Hints:
Layout: E1 4-7, H1 9-15, H2 20-33, E2 41-43, E3 50-57, E4 60-69, E5 72-80, H3 88-94
Amino acid sequence: MSYELVPSHIFLQQLEKLSFKARQILKEKLESLKFAPARNKRILGYNLFLFRIRLSDSGKELRIIYLLDKEKIKILCILNRKNNYKDLEKYLRRLGCL
């Protein structure tokens, strides 16, 4: 079964700020999601099927947050790991997930 990737407008804005190399690595990781979306670490504490992908860009540890929703993978946002997911709830509210 292949899932459809659906990027949010927030994710697309954040994507432009990544380096070319980080975008290439992210593209490969997102393509592999289509066939095994639940293989990454799940984010607990929400009544949603949220997962994260680890990514590094110019020495910054980033997390790509996505939501598994039936046959779609909604790519929500990019979080800076040093903020300990503090911005996650803000993004979820802005995207209408909470």
